[in-house]
Amino acid sequence: MNTFAALLPRFYRTQRYYGDPWLVILTALLVGFGLVMMTSASIEIASRSYGDGLYYFKRQLVFLAVGVGVSAFMLSVPMRFWYRGSVAWLALAYALLVLVLVPGIGHEVNGSVRWFSLSAFSFQASEPAKLLIVFFMAWFLSRHRVLVRHSIKGLLIPLILLGFPVSLLLLEPDFGAVVVLGIAVFGMLFLAGVRLYLFLGMAGLAVGGAWLLVVSSEYRMQRLMTFLQALKDPFSDDVVFGSGYQLAQALIAFGRGEWFGVGLGNSIQKMYFLPEAHTDFVLAIIAEELGVVSVLLLLVLFFAFVLRAMLIARRNEKSGRLFAAYLGYGIAFLFMGQVLINVAVNTGLLPTKGLTLPFLSYGGSSLLMCLVMTALLLRIDIEHHELQHESQQPRLNARPNPLPSVMPEPSEPPRPLYQPSYQMAPAPRPVYQVAQKTVFAPHSGGRAS
Fold first, then answer.
1. What whole-number distance in Å separates Cα of residue 359 and Cα of residue 370?
2. Cβ distance 248 to 234 under 8 Å?
3. Of 28, 34, 201, 395, which has the most beta carbons under 10 Å away?
4. Cβ pair 235, 248 in contact under 8 A
5. Are 285 and 275 in contact (CB under 8 A)?
6. What is the pLDDT of residue 294?
7. What is the dihedral of CA 385, 390, 391, 397, to 10 degrees?
8. What is the pLDDT of residue 437?
């Protein structure tokens, strides 16, 4: 056993704390529930298309196994590795988004060029690109925190650098990824302490730019008009038999499910009425089979997951580990943005947009990146726990203090623990004060007056 342990990386030999237990439990619940509901939503289309009702379930299990393996590796990688390569990660995000647009490399599905096709597996370029961009943003905010807080230059530099990947995402086109990335970036800037008037100004410009993108694109404008028509009459002929067909079928699923659903596996909408039932619209099938109560409980799980991620980031910010803190905030906002948009699309609160529901929708790239981001949150929490634990331990080989006799000897001040620069908040500028002069009264024996 000792020989086997010696072959393992140092992390697995010495580590006893494996991250926030609530985050691990919530992830396991979401992944398990997602496997059940994705299988139920896909069993009919899998039987008809492949002759195997568990076809998508088996593939999702493979994606899950790969994701767990990659996540285990990510747990062993220290934060300083991601910090030192932050600029390289932004360049890698650029490269992925450029390569997917090259003919012969990128794979087109439903009119969008978003995937790399690897024989039996397709990988969406925007999924890792969003995380890589969050790496860079966390590095910039931790390194230039004062500039970001007190200068418009500190706000413009990261936004200009992000303009290029946003343009590439719009060329795919993948407007949903742009919105999710925007939520994460602006959320990180807000928590970094950007002045409110600057933040509101930039947010207003971003909303105005999004509106111009909608009105300048025919298919986006068509989706918007269908959405507005659906708000007035969701079951009109123009909506049901036009571009609002998916939305109408999703609303039918919610209506059939009522409070407690029609029973697991008894959905009718998944039988070719609701397209993409096992991917983007799996929430509608959950509502039909298990009811709105189950949907609300699922949203509670997602809320608790995001809350734990924010708490982990907040603990690191309070201890001065700014890069880890902003990375945790960014990952939390990525999850939150994707959940909110997917739920809003399924319930008709936003125009139809192709975004998966984290941990639940079918898709290898989505599940893999969700597990990787969870592993990063756990690694952030592990390193914070290590530093807290070390600060409470007595210094090794310290000379014991002798027993006091007449006059106790002054104890040796403890040496400060070393922390890498990427973990420490910028030290405040020293404030110098002129020492007050002590005036002695005459004939007082040296007593201060």
1. 7
2. yes
3. 34
4. yes
5. no
6. 93
7. 180
8. 47
Element (H, E) at 25: helix 21-50
Please give the biggest Cα pair distance in the chain.
108
Q: Residues with Cβ < 8 Å from 233, sequence gap 6 or more?
A: 239
The strand pairing partners of 122, in sequence order, are 117
pLDDT beneath 70: ranges in the chain: 1-16, 110-111, 120, 217-220, 226-227, 229-243, 389-449
Structure-token pair, residue 208: 């105005």
**What stretches of 193-257 show up as alpha helix (H) in DSSP?**
196-215, 218-232, 237-240, 245-257
**Ordered DSSP codes for 175-189:** HHHHHHHHHHHHHHH
Instruction: Note the pLDDT of residue 434.
Output: 46
pLDDT at position 67 is 92
Helix, strand, or coil (residue 357): coil
Q: Give ∠ CA 354-360-365 in degrees, rounded to 5.
A: 65
Q: Could you write out the three-class secondary structure of the chain?
A: CHHHHHHCCHHHHHCCCCCCHHHHHHHHHHHHHHHHHHHHHHHHHHHHHHCCCCHHHHHHHHHHHHHHHHHHHHHCCCHHHHHHCHHHHHHHHHHHHHHCCCCCCEEEECCEEEEEEECCEEEECHHHHHHHHHHHHHHHHHHCHHHHHHCHHHHHHHHHHHHHHHHHHHHCCCHHHHHHHHHHHHHHHHHCCCCHHHHHHHHHHHHHHHHHHHHCCHHHHHHHHHHHHHHHCCCCHHHHCCCCHHHHHHHHHHHHHCCCCCCCCCCCCCCCCCCCCCCCCHHHHHHHHHHHHHHHHHHHHHHHHHHHHHHHHHHHHHCCCHHHHHHHHHHHHHHHHHHHHHHHHHCCCCCCCCCCCCCCCCCHHHHHHHHHHHHHHHHHHHHHHHHHHHHCCCCCCCCCCCCCCCCCCCCCCCCCCCCCHHHCCCCCCCCCCCCCCCCECCCCCCCEC
The pLDDT assigned to 9 comes to 53
* pTM > 0.85: no
Q: Radius of gyration of the chain from Cα atoms?
A: 27
